[in-house]
Write a structure and sequence with these properties.
By secondary structure, the chain is mainly beta.
């Protein structure tokens, strides 16, 4: 068994909080005898020190190692710890690695042999790619950047981590970014046909705040901001959308809406 990780950097905003990891999407594919089996989908928010589960992924998915940085870590050099919570609820350290920009990952404590070790090593490589400065897509004012998600061979179409990014200069946000992270689409439970697409909305100036939601299909886009709920609140009216929200809604409405 082996694990293959793919990293996709996102454009960053100059006013975003500083973090040890750059914003982006990551996927770790676990293969057995050449066949793609389990898939771990993650993303990194602005100013973050960790990987976050991709929106709407099942929290009961097979357990995977988690990563955190040691206290002395900085943007120049960092010590990444990888651990797993055992059946007894206790955290077990699996490996430690030294990471620095432009250098190969160096193991301080190597991961265990076997499937768990392969997943840990894959996660460590993803951490090294996301750490520190690096090339990222550029985004001009007034445009929406659509990204396809990390390219992992064999990944099901509904699991692709598509995202859209637009600059937002409203109020005190400064030079910030509104991001839409696509979740698996809504399908007819009997026929499996596509009913609507949807995306989780996050803002670079407040990446840990409650996310918003955007749902679209042929004929229209509905958007709820963070703190709103589609079962309790009406969507934001078109006239009340911010410039960034309008650009985002117009962009996804203009993309082909068809089953994969």
């Amino acid at each position: 068994m082996n694990a293959k990780g793919v990293w996709e950097p996102w454009p960053s905003a100059s006013d975003a909080p500083a973090g040890l990891l750059r914003p982006g999407a990551a996927v770790l594919g676990i293969c057995h005898e050449g066949e793609l089996g389990a898939v771990l989908r993650r993303w990194v928010g602005d100013g973050s020190r960790w990987f976050t589960r991709w929106p709407d992924d099942d929290p009961s998915e097979a357990q995977a190692p988690s990563m955190f940085f040691g206290r002395a870590s900085s943007t120049d050099t960092a010590e990444a710890w990888f651990e797993m919570t055992g059946v007894d609820g206790q955290d077990q350290v699996l490996a430690r690695a030294a990471i620095a920009p432009g250098e190969e990952l160096r193991w301080l404590d190597e991961p265990p042999v076997g499937p768990l070790g392969a997943v840990t090593a894959g996660l460590a490589e993803l951490t090294a790619r996301a750490f520190g400065p690096g090339a990222a897509p550029q985004l001009r004012d007034g445009e929406v950047l659509a990204l396809p998600g990390p390219e992992l061979p064999g990944l099901a179409e509904d699991l692709r981590q598509r995202s859209w990014h637009v600059r937002d200069h409203r109020g005190s946000a400064g030079d910030s970014m509104l991001r839409a992270l696509e979740m698996p689409p809504l399908r007819d439970p009997e026929e499996g046909t596509l009913r609507a697409r949807r995306a989780h909305l996050v803002h670079s100036s407040a990446p840990l705040s409650a996310p918003g939601l955007m749902v679209w299909r042929t004929g229209g886009v509905r958007l709820w901001r963070g703190g709103m709920h589609p079962l309790l609140d009406a969507p934001v009216t078109r006239s009340d959308l911010t410039e960034a929200e309008s650009l985002l809604a117009e962009h996804v409405a203009g993309e082909p809406f068809a089953d994969a």
